[in-house]
Design goal:
Elements (H helix, E strand, L loop, with lengths): L3 H24 L6 H30 L1
Helix pairs in contact: 1-2
Pfam family, one: ComZ
Organism: Halalkalibacter okhensis
Protein name: Competence protein ComG
Length: 64
């Protein structure tokens, strides 16, 4: 899926939860700056996109 609007919504969700993830890493002694976090954010966006598509396919299958 390459839907810019959906990607923006996924990014907003990721940014909402970023402080929680950063706190977890800090407590583990793992120091990361935003540049370091960028690949992880992209991975998270890919996961959310796949989960969205899976849910969409599942909903479509159930409506048939």
């Amino acid at each position: 899926m390459n839907n810019p609007e959906m990607n923006m919504k996924f990014m907003q969700i990721a940014m909402k939860h970023l402080p929680e993830g950063k706190k977890f890493l800090d407590e583990k002694g793992i120091e990361l700056n935003m540049e370091d976090l960028q690949p992880m954010l992209e991975l998270l966006l890919n996961v959310m996109s796949e989960a969205y598509e899976l849910g969409k396919d599942h909903a479509s299958d159930e409506s048939n």
